[in-house]
Amino acid sequence: MGAKEENGDGGGIRPPIEQEISKELDTNMKKYLRGEGANLEILKDKKLKGQLALREELYGKSAKAAAKVEKWLMPSEGGYLEAEGVEKTWQIKQEAIAREVDILSSRNQYDIVLPELGPYTLDFTSSGRYMAAAGRKGHLAVVDMKNMNLIKEIQVRETVRDVVFLHNELFFAAAQKKYPYIYNRDGTELHCLKEHGAVLKLQFLRNHFLLVSINKFGQLRYQDVTMGEIVGNFRTGLGRTDVMRVNPFNGVVSLGHSGGTVTMWKPTTAAPLIKMLCHQGPVSALAFHPNGHLMATSGKECKIKIWDLRKYEVLQTLPGHAKTLDFSQKGLLAVGTGSFVQILGDFSGSHNYSRYMGNSMVKGYQIGKVSFRPYEDVLGIGHSMGWSSILVPGSGEPNFDSWVANPFETSKQRREKEVRSLLDKLPPETIMLNPSKIGTVREAKKKEKPTKQEREAEMEAAVEAVKGFVWKNKTKGRNKPSKKAKKKQELVAKAKRPFLDQQLKGEQSLSTKKQKLSEEVELPASLQRFARKKPTA
Amino acid sequence: MKVKVISRSTDEFTRERSQDLQRVYHNYDPNLRPQEKAVEYVRALTAAKLEKIFARPFIGALDGHRDGISCMAKNPNYLKGFFSGSMDGDIRLWDIANRRTVCQYSGHQGAVRGLTVSTDGRILVSCGTDCTVKLWNVPVATLTDSDDSTDNSSEPLAVYVWKNSFWAVDHQWEGDLFATAGAQVDIWNHNRSQPINSFQWGTDTVISVRFNPAEPNVLATTASDRSITLYDLRMSSPARKVIMRTKSNSISWNPMEPMNFTAANEDCNCYSYDSRKLDEAKCVHMGHESAVMDIDYSPTGREFVTGSYDRTIRIFQYNGGRSREIYHTKRMQRVFCVKFSCDASYVISGSDDTNLRLWKAKASEQLGVLHPREQRKHAYHEAVKNRYKHLPEIKRIVRHRHLPKPIYKAASLRRTMMEAERRKAERRKAHSAPGSIVTEPVRKRRIIKEVE
């Protein structure tokens, strides 16, 4: 009986649980709709209006289906950490967490001590399964994080400043003393990238297959690793810096300089897209939120600032030093200084970062780099005595998409993915500050009148072009120098004429306007009839 | 303290045996896919290029006739059977799949002007310039027949001689009446040797006739006085007429929207009309460089194919002004008749060079049975290409068609001429008193008047 009634009420009043669920689905749908719908009221073309209305309906349906999948079909749930009673989350120590959590996860918390080989930097592949670690004194290692298997380690006997994975776990690039090198997973050296010079920091743009480097002289280089061509090569002009980060949302590379400025670059222009003064001292670290709206910078004047990248404004300023910064997939910010790592989280949704967790390491360890492991609640810390990993509940994305990044990839799947991502390789021209502009209509630029300086410059250029003309040596007495000089004068006058005409026209219109205005202003109303009229012939 | 960390057990996310399928998990969150629009754009570009690589529309030519082909008919009950009639009186039944002649009907003295098949597909009606209407038997295809390769000729079931030569014939979609066009429109029954009814409006010859697919009693004809006339068999006189500036060579009704029909006109355009409102064309389809000789709608009602005197075939969308596709071959001369196959996959054209040609309706379509994955991939490519087809690089690739030089030159010449006319009309309007010159919309411009 009750079931029948419910079914009958399908169109009208629904039970409260269903209403709640549909509200939840609606809020989730917004994420999948990717912005506002188009305003179809202003269209006059009925056929186009009908077609677009159909499309908008389809978008709504697909967003609803995606929201339903998110609600019901996701295999894993995210992590969380809640303090009970008087306890605060940042007072909870790693050992306490490890005790409460299952064995497999507690194995993710460890310390690897390698004291002789210098401060370590880390890099994870996009699926979070493999890690490349590089010690300053030349130790390179690739580790499979699922089984804690050391796949390969090599000693290159040179300073290694940075390491980064290319599109796969098969290839990684190491910034060594003089040049960066690309190695295979088996440790064979594949390429020596001589053009880059002595590189301080490397980054890899995954969708574009571009390897970006900043070297000792402050030169920024983009190299396409599929065919090996150097796509861009720029002198930043702002000196030596080793703070470089790629914004994963739009592929823009940003550098932090010693004057406190942060510049953003794309491979097709020689000048930076944005130059913003962020700090009063040198910029020491930089990190981007995966959604592309937030940037965290830290300066040596003991301030950490969170910026909104849409308006380029400071959202929050926090006190503290930071040698390294990193955002996790869920938006937690890890700050590393000295031997202390602090993790900040934004829990109210209003971009207000507050303390979430902290971890203090052994006193002598100097933290060099913090990096969140994708799709896991783990933070990797590279420090002067090796590397460590700690558990940070709630930092990783629990549900991966097999076709974006699969931590359980087999070699066949990896090969397929490599081919498909090469087919989808983006050309470097698609890197722009707002990547959703692709496919939209470009705004009509208003034609501006060239300023006086520009006009003069154009005139000069035209005259120079004429003067640079090479004269043919005529024979039989037609080569008189006086004639040549006269001809040259004529040509220069001809080149100048259009510019002078324009000028005259402009002046005439100005003068008539001025005259009219002045006349109307000078004489009072009763004497207007004595205003100067045009003389008759 | 309550704590939970992401922990994935390997068993849950990998397959148990190598015979199992690999597990695939989806997360549609846009945050996991940065720069998705750029990726889609690159995929659209690749899809456009692939489409061009696979665009091979010509399947084969069916030769056998000894003179130019003047008319064609398709059998509504049998997908593979097509009839064609030529200028020397030879009628053949073709098996399109094997590209052979199944049956040959000879008997007409002059050119065969019209062919049509009865509703049950058993009787073929043909008419010609020798003033006769002949009814033939269509052999029913059985398994044994398809192995034979003998062209067996047969005798006509009936021969009806009448007063003047015929120009076209069409059969009702449901019923047993057929209409012939000549000096007037005659309605015949299969069994009577004289027309049971005759319609005439004016003194000019009627050059083509078509029955409406939904209304068995409505038919449309075109005449050489540049008119298109609608008839209703239940009334004793013709219903309506619209006179245009140039003569229409052929008409086809839209099978999915039976109140609309499209007329193939001598002025290189096709005009779509709503039969209830003939004072204005619904759509003008431009593209051909010379007179459009024949037109046929696809059974989906969404596109139609036209064959023209300028040696090309174009496929248009039912509501589009420009052609979606153009087919041409060096050996194909003036196209006199075209037909869309009943499964909307093929186009058959008959031309002056005595050949019937078989083309794909979608040039890059993969024929045969497709795996569902392939189907989805094709659908995805179509969708992503449609999303970005307005962007310049993709538009350039999708729009590009190689045209033979004479057609290309003819097209640019025509464009210059029309551009010049338009400019002159614009200037005349600009230099005259505002309101004294009224520009008529293109859809009305070619219509002179509508007559009841």
From TrEMBL, chain B:
WD repeats lie at residues 62-104, 105-146, 285-326, 328-369. One of its GO terms (biological process) is protein ubiquitination. Gene3D superfamilies: YVTN repeat-like/Quinoprotein amine dehydrogenase. GO terms for cellular component: nucleolus; small-subunit processome. Keywords: Nucleus, Repeat, Ribonucleoprotein, WD repeat. Residues 361-447 form the Sof1-like protein domain. InterPro entries: Sof1, WD40/YVTN_repeat-like_dom_sf, WD40_PAC1, WD40_repeat_CS, WD40_repeat_dom_sf, WD40_rpt, WD_repeat_DCAF13/WDSOF1. It is found in: Nucleus, Nucleolus. This is DDB1- and CUL4-associated factor 13. It comes from Citrus sinensis.
